[in-house]
C-alpha cells in the first residue's frame, strides 16, 4: 500500500518580450514546474516551451515610379500592372490608380501639398482615363505635360490650354511633345499623391 502524505507545489512563470527594429521579433517563454513528494515516492516534472516568430515586410519601388533621365523612346514598354486592389478616394478631377490619386493642372511643375510630380511611365498607363476630367485649379499655358522625368513625352492634342472637361487624355508625343523640356509658368503638370 502506497501512502502520499506531503503537499504538492505548482508554479507557472510566463515571460513575453517584443523587440522591433526593421523586423519584428516576438519571443514567448513559458515554464511550468510541478513537484510531488512522499515518504516512498519522489516525482519531478519540468516543461519549457519557446515560440519564436519572425516577420519581414519588403517594399519594392516599381520602376514606373522612379524618374527617368532618358529621352522619350516609343519602343520602350512600360508594364502597367495594377499592384493593389485598393482604390484611392480621389477628387472628381483625379484618376485613381494603384492606391494613388493623379491630376493634371497648369502649375508650372509644382504640385499641391501631399502630391509630387509623377512619371511619364505612370501617365502612359492612365492617360486615357483623363478623358472627361478637368484641370485641378489652373488652366495651362503649354500643352506638353511636365512630369518627374527629365523629358516630356506626352501632350494634349485637344482641349489644350482651355477649360475642361478634357475630350481625351494626353497622348504620346501629343502637341509635338517628344523629348522636350518646356518650362512655362503655367506648364501642364502631372502630379500624384504621396
Secondary structure topology:
Blueprint: E1 8-20, E2 24-37, E3 42-55, E4 95-97, E5 100-106, E6 115-117, H1 120-126, E7 142-146, E8 154-155, E9 171-172, E10 187-193
Parallel strand pairs: 7-10
Antiparallel strand pairs: 1-2, 2-3, 4-5, 5-10, 6-10, 8-9
Detailed description of the structure:
Residues 15-39 are annotated as: Disordered. This protein has 194 residues and is mostly beta strands. The chain has 2 domains: 9-55, no CATH class; 67-72 and 87-193, no CATH class. Helix content is 4%, strand content 36%. The protein is built from 1 helix and 10 strands. The strands form 3 sheets. Strands 4, 5, 6, 7 and 10 form a 5-stranded mixed sheet that branches. The longest helix is centred in the middle third of the chain and has 7 residues, at 120-126. It is globular and about 35 Å long. 27% of the residues are buried.
